[in-house]
Amino acid sequence: MTISPLLAGLCDDAALFPPGNAPMDAAVPAHLEHERSDHAALVGPFVFPAPRLGELPAIIAKQDGDLELSLTVPAGTDAVPAALEQLRAIDGVRLVAMEIGVPEGQAPDALFAALGEISSAAPGVEIFVEVPRDDRRPAILAAMAGTPYSAKFRTGGIVAAAYPDEAELAAAIHTVATSGVRFKATAGLHHAIRNTDPETGFEQHGFLNVMLATHRATGGASVEEVAATLADRDGTALAGALAGLSAEAVDALRANFRSFGTCSISDPLTELVGLGLVPRSSTEPSAPTGSVDSPSTEEGPLA
Questions:
Q1: 218 φ/ψ angles, rounded to the nearest 5 degrees
Q2: CA 229 to CA 194: how far, in whole Å?
Q3: Where is the composition biased (Polar residues) (predicted)?
Q4: What is the 3-state secondary structure (H, E, C) of the chain?
Q5: d(C-alpha 84, C-alpha 193), whole Å
Q6: d(CA 126, CA 128)
């Protein structure tokens, strides 16, 4: 199976998070199996919540091969030093990224001062900042331009209010695409194409919509045009537009839009095959029990 540069490393494995909530003793070996599969090039790091680091050593001890982690620290920058210390004591893991929350009340200047200290303590680790959906967002995004830090946008969750509408997400994408800030997305991108969930009625963004919207924003599209791309439900047209991008355009797109978190690697892979962006293979991707990327009312930490 050939994974094109358009899709390389696109899917961060967030199997532990809602709505999948996979058991850790199933999710970790399943991730390592994905890394050994013929679709391995599609798969990014294993997204892991810092509050559960205490559970990891017993699981890792049973595995063959190192586990690349993107560590989520929802409590914010103050919780990072203890998490790093705990992680460094665990053999068999390699930290490649951190996804850090911005708690209520933390001002942008305090945030960036703390990020500088974290960056020095974890050289070579990509740092994503989960940019809040409040009046601090413009200042934080403006301050990120020209820094080594990347943005993380929440694109859904287990309640309707967690889903930004097209206008909100388009404005965020337009800002980062025109200022050179890298970003990833998390939660809610359960399908390749914009859709209405039949069980919950939630309006869900498609990850291919986000990709094409990013490309168009970089090319000068207005916020309104980016929003229209996010609302597009024509999967054939979206896939065709992305497949037709030049190598240079693909490189620029993926330098900007890094990845998205998904609690099922098999679901996006299946949809990409169906849309013709990934060739069919006789090898079926595996998924841990509980990782089906469908709506759930079970509460849990969000990626």
A1: -60, -35
A2: 9
A3: 280-297
A4: CCCCCCCCCCEEECCCCCCCCCCHHHHHHHHHHHHCCCCHHHEEEEEEEHHHHHHHHHHHCCCCCCEEEEEEECCCHHHHHHHHHHHHCCCCEEEEEEEECCCCCCCHHHHHHHHHHHHHHCCCCEEEEECCCCCCHHHHHHHHCCCCCEEEEECCCCCHHHCCCHHHHHHHHHHHHHHCCCEEEECCCCECCCEECCCCCCEECEHHHHHHHHHHHHCCCCHHHHHHHHHCCCHHHHHHHHHCCCHHHHHHHHHHEEEEEECCCHHHHHHHHHCCCCCCCCCCCCCCCCCCCCCCCCCCCCC
A5: 37
A6: 7
In a domain, 296, yes or no: no
pLDDT score at 65: 84
pLDDT tens track for 182-216 = 999 999 999 999 999 999 999 999 999 999 999 99
Could you tell me the residue range of the domain that residue 199 belongs to?
11-272
Sign of CA dihedral 55, 57, 61, 63: positive
What type of residue sits at position 40? Answer: A
Domain count, the chain: 1
Residues in the chain, pLDDT under 70 = 282-303
Maximum distance among all Cα pairs of the chain, rounded to whole angstroms: 52
Strands 195-196 and 203-204, how do they pair?
A: antiparallel
Q: Which amino acid is at 45?
A: P
Q: What pLDDT sits at residue 302? A: 56
In a domain, 243, yes or no: yes
127 DSSP β-pair partners: 98
What phi, psi does 268 have (nearest 5°)? -65, -35
- Rounded to 10 deg, the angle between the 207-218 and 247-256 helix axes is 110
Pull the structure tokens for residue 194. 């914009």
How far, CA to CA in Å, does 159 sit from each of 61, 129, 213, 298? 36, 22, 24, 11
Q: What is the CATH number of the domain that holds 227?
A: 3.20.20
Q: Both ends of the chain: CA-CA distance in Å?
A: 28
